[in-house]
Amino acid sequence: MAEAHPVGFQWVMEAKRRGATIIHVDPRFTRTSAVSDVHVPIRAGSDIAWLGALVNYVLSNDLDFREYVVAYTNAANIIEGRFQDTEDLDGLFSGFDPETGHYDPTSWAYQPDSAQQVEDDAERDRAYGDTPGSQESHQSARSESHGSGGAPVRWKGRRDETLQDPSCVFQILKRHFARYTPEMVQEVCGIGPEQFQRVAEALTRNSGRDRTTAFCYAVGWTHHSTGAQMIRTASILQLLLGNIGRPGGGIMALRGHASIQGSTDIPTLFNILPGYLPMPTASQHQSLDEWVRDDEGKAGFWGNVRSYAVSLLKSYWGDAATPENDFCFDYLPRITGDHSTYTTVKSMIEGSCKGYFVVGENPTVGSSNGKMQRLGLANLDWLVVRDLQMIETATFWKDSPEIETGELVTEEIGTEVFFLPAATHVEKSGSFTQTQRMLQWRDKAVDPPGDARSELQFYYDLGQRIRRKLAGSTDEMDRPLLDLAWDYPTDDEGDPEGEAVLKEINGTGPDGAALASYTELKDDGSTACGCWIYCGVYADEVNLARRRKPHWDQDWVASEWGWVWPANRRQLYNRASAAPDGSPWSERKAYIQWDADADDGKGKWVGPDVPDFIADRAPDYVPPEGAKGPDAIGGQDPFIMQTDGKGWLFAPLGVADGPMPAHYEPPESPVRNPLYGQQNNPSRRKVDHPANPINPSFSEIFPYVFTTYRLTEHHTAGGMSRTLPYLTELQPEPFCEVSPRLAAERGLTHGDWVTIVTARAAIEAKVLVTDRMRSLRLGDRFVEQVGLPYHWGGNGLTTGDSPNDLVNLTLDPNVYIQDKVGTCDIRPGRRPRGPELTAYVEAYRRRAGVDMAHPEDGGADG
Amino acid sequence: MREQSMVPEPEFESYYGRQILKTPTWKTPDVPLYLFLGGLAGASAVLAEGAALSGRPQLERVARLAAAGGATAGTVALVHDLGRPERFLNMLRVFKPTSPLSVGSFILAPFASFAGAAAASQVTGVLPRLGRLAGVGAAAFGPPLATYTAALVANTAIPAWHEAHRELPFVFAGSGAQAAGGLAMMLVPLDQAAPARRMALVGAALELVASERITKKGLVAEPYRIGRPGRLMRFARNASVVASGATALAGGRSRVLSAVAGATYLASSVTTRFGVFEAGLASAKDPKYVVVPQKERLARKETGGAAAHTEGQPAG
Amino acid sequence: MAEADRNRTCLTRMPGHNGFEDRARHQTRYASATHLRRLIGSLCFRRPCRGYIAEVNAFLGWPAIRQATGRDRLGRGAAAMSKRSETLEPRTVKADKVVDSVCPYCAVGCAQKVFVKDGKVAQIEGNPASPISRGRLCPKGSASKQLVTSPSRVTKVRYRRPYATEWEDLDLDTAVDMIADRVIKTRKQFWEWEADGNRTRRTMGIASLGGATLDNEENYLMKKLYTAMGAIQIENQARI
Amino acid sequence: MSIFSERSLWGRLDDVQHDAGYDEDHPPRMGFFTDTSVCIGCKACEVACKEWNDVPDDGYLLTGMSYDNTQALGASTWRHVAFVEKSGAGAAPAVDLGMPSFDLPGAHPHGEDQATESGDGALRWLMSSDVCKHCTHAGCLDVCPTGALFRTEFGTVVVQPDVCNGCGYCVSACPYGVIDLRKDDGRAFKCTLCYDRLKEGQTPACAQACPTESIQFGELSELRERADRRLEELHEKGVDVARLYGRDPEDGVGGDGAFFLLLDEPEVYGLPPDPVVPTRDIGSVWKHVGIAAATLFGVGVASFVGRRK
Predict the structure, then answer these.
(1) Cα A348–chain centre separation
(2) In a domain, A788, yes or no
(3) How many residue pairs from chains A and D have C-beta atoms closer than 8 A?
(4) Which residues span the domain enclosing C223?
(5) How far is A115 from chain D (nearest CA, A)?
(6) Which of A140, A230, A475, C191 is deepest in the core (most CB within 10 A)?
(7) What DSSP element (H or E) covers A786?
């Protein structure tokens, strides 16, 4: 965190000053480790084993925060009798289809608490014209079909609040994690038992009524073929310890780009629409009704999904969207599975995707398997790159590594490339959403130079031109473009006014005035809202993201700086900061509580933050039978975005690779999974392409683990840092880091060149031999790790090979994010040049026995 | 002599072996030459005035020209060494007794004027009385000019220079005397050169004694003993000894021998300045000359209490 | 608030939204320009004295004279102060405007103040008022002025023709128009009304990558336009 | 020598501005307290300094000195973050390690006996942001012949770029090796403690940027108290290796205007263990120069005494 988010880290240092214990778990000893109380070196990719053992420690020593767990989580829920655990199936859960690699989650479901519920549900299915059984397809584990809040459960389910029922989540969890022992941690992660004990004690001692523990993570957890489950393991741990929804608790994603949160909320992502509404899936959603049916009417705020969806369609197509035409639902393109970036790159290579906009990204350096990126680019008809500097993605046709090896030839690349200069953050006004969901507005300071323009202006202009060119078309395919509400006020330079767009995002009522809250959204077309969770940012026509009230002029929550979605809530699920009866868990940890005397005795939730709950819902409220949406939220259901209001220790559906996390080895690993017979995540998404061969596991040819990471001094793919002298001089060359033991084993000399090889590529870098890289003892063997800061490419003030060229493409099945852990060899000296490089890598593949018939598999699971 | 330190190689920590001090930015040969020329000019001015008083016109003429020429060339070297030569006059912006270079500028400026005027008058015969008066002025500023340069290098953080601050003025005085005497021995007939020979001889003795005291200072003086500066210092010493021997034995008898001895003195003087200068550079480049004496001093302070701060402690 | 922080904000507190204009209000207890000028005035000879000729003035301005007649006998302080030092002030004081901004690098969201002079960015620094960053910036954030003013920024459209070996110049207007044409053509070429018997109403020919470094408003327009185009392969760094 | 008033050159000097000719109502002495125990080595200070002061880049070289590619303070580096990787016992060795420890990190392979359970204090990664010390008795300032270097009303030591003629004397006179000449410019440069910002009551750029308050700016007297408390706190926590550096007004430079809390011996960070301002001995220097000059004069006179050959 000190490495990649130094300014955020000031709060960790603040906590440390006040007595907090800082524990840093990382394969490397980083700048964070340097100031932490404990550094735990871990083998990259083994976090589930580590966190799972902590879960086991909590469960087997009865250290969970029982009152919280019973009331606020689904620990008490009884699971279907058909459910089988990895304990029963040697690493698989029930419902796995080896043909497709997908799980059918029906056996993971909650048991209904009454026959009436089953009957009601069947009735509802029939109303949609389905047979009850077809519900399964709607509840597919495939995550791209869900918006935020995960998949909706059908009913709250039967509960045993004594947690004794062998089929209750708590007991299942206990059995599932029983094999995650400290000994296993040593075996899998390379972390010794004393170290484990120290962390486990510190963690549990600091959790409970009086104390809370926070987790921070970044792409060290997400960049794995089991990434979503790593974070789920942490969630389970934090829920068991009562650390969610409480001040000082939580699991905080430290995101890496100025508005990466915003670009997820208002997504430039294939599977969602603004506000985490799912993109319609062709097989399920052919009408507005079908689109919203899974969530509509369910408990919680997702129950109002129709209002959000209709309001979005109104903001997209304005007057053209009417109740009669399903509010133009049909104008929405439908997805048919995974259309994520790596899948798209593959279709570029295969020639089925021909036009590409790259906007403020540098995939040839920043995305995994750089070669596939470049092969894809080379097969396009046209490419538009918008950036500040001449990045490698724009110049691939003349200086990519494949040009050097002869695999690509400039004169044979037919891609037409447009490089359009972009405006910087001070040359346009607009909002970023930072990592804690806070929108902060930037005012424009100066005009962009030359041809540089904002994306706002470019896309607005592009849309105008396309619409002009298509004007008069009667082709049905052009209707969505021609009917689009695409009229924004502009300044003298033709730049649309950002605030006008923000107001559209915020939403407007029938009178055109800005709405104040998403609870005002209607499903009859009388309101429009570009992103329902952002509704309120422009309340009373005031840009609240622009607020800059100094922190010294307000309380510690600082609610009047910027605006946080939803509803300017600074901490999500903060109802959980109070006990079930509404009183604070402890004075020390008081945050939101029920004040029964407020509002003339009607009572309401009060505290320094906006309560993440219905303001006047009493703690003892029990929803009446048949209640829908927010009305169905009980007074003790703090997780109001979940359809059962509870935190999920066990995911009855919605997670592609199992209801509970299980440790699987990365697709490339020198280690045999000691926990199960199943080596790799069975549901991992493989990318089948000859340019993506996987190193066989346990290969002696590729005996070392490697992983990539950032340096403080650089930024992602380097376009914004390698081009600046002040940053370049701080880290002026690519390098890798190895332990002294590995250096001795391979004859590597500190400061000299080394070559790092995988089945995909070989790159060179200088080597730092340092004790900060630890040789990890796993049982009776050592595992060595090679650390690779990944910022470099061929352009800029400091240049070098891109470590991402080494990384294979094997994706997490939930979110389609790559696994950045792989295996490699490392040798002294520089890599071969030109065609010899291709031959060099080819020789490695041959010696390692890579099966080029199934290069994407790795072959560890037979 | 084998190149080894006289004390056992100390063990010490440093930051990747990097030097702690900055290497002096003064350029070679500008600054060592300036040190030499200042000494030559300053001592020559004294010699010139002595010659004038004692009626040795040829010695006077050579010495006056040497004083003026040395001052001029020295000024050129000094200005050339500046990063911003056009701002040379800023040297006279303030008068700082804490800055030998400031004080030196207020010595060099009048000296150069006096010596120049005296030489001009001597050569042209114009305004002889004023020329003589200027010569007296130059003689007054001469010795300070010849010795202040020792303060210049001594008043630095460079251990090899600073720790020799008591001896260096004498080394420089002796070296200047040798240079002035040596030059005159080369250019002045034997019958008028006796004072020059005596000046060179006494100067050589002075320098040898003072230098010897420096080299005995232990680790901080190591740069004077080893490496290139060590070789330069040894050459200068040997040259002085040889020149003095020749001068004492036959300086007054053989014109040729006198000239050779004079040239040897000059060479010795130049070499001394380069030796001292480079010893300083070497001293800055190795952190041990900073760390070890300072650690020792701290250790003494811990054991010996407050007495450590008294004058006479090596400052390191 | 930590002690150090209290101190820092006291010294650097800048008014939230009004920028430096009312900095006088925040003048600290230890220094002000006028105080300083008074101070200097009392130390030095007042230069433009009546009755003196210019040369005398210049002579009296000679620091050595100030040194000799003033209290700074060693010439190490007040006497040595130059005219420039006497009138020095931070360039931010001369800024035409101060604009509230946010650091463009990671997602912590550190507040920045952008000082503009003559239409150019003169300085970017942290805004102490922010409850997130309290005025602090990391090396990248601290380098953001260089990011904005970098001489290697590309400010003209560059165009590479198919199979060409070099860039060409291209007019911006022409470029955007050509892109619009390409979009229309490729969209139609890869249009797909249905897949596996289900209506899809989309084009598979156009993809987009990027958004995590852009504004919410920009992402909104992008997704809106792409969706209307029927392009679905829209992705950004959040997946990478 | 009588020209030097007591304490002007050496020893404790409580009002350095007054000594430099400023009136009694001058502003308090300002300085830095750099607490390296909370430094995360982000180098924001280096960049913020350069952005504010328009300091050029200082060359691109991967040094292998851990994450330090800046190497040292200099004319174009006014803040420098040192990185020291120390393995072995958790505590710093009291005197020396028995071997020179300036090897590059990892120069000594550990092999099979390397402990793998880290977090055991086996490894320390020390970071420290170094800067000009703004000494009470500043060698650079003392020797500057032009008055380009001067003591400001804030008690800081600043080069005036409109005066400096690049004589380079200051470079040799700094016992910390801070100031240097910029080659392509010719003049000397170093940290100004953001003199211009101070005049408007602003915090220096580096201290303002520092994310973790490792660099603290303020009145020197207050900083010293704060540092004392911090040291006490660390000692109570058992961090015995913590010590203050440059805090003592009685030390060889009369105390630093920018001082530090270190977690190891100063020389480990590239700092001199016991720096002394050269000018401490200026009296002795002049005395010896005077005697030597007189001696030379005497030699001159003596040379003409005696019989004429």
Answers:
(1) 24
(2) yes
(3) 160
(4) 158-239
(5) 55
(6) A230
(7) strand A785-789
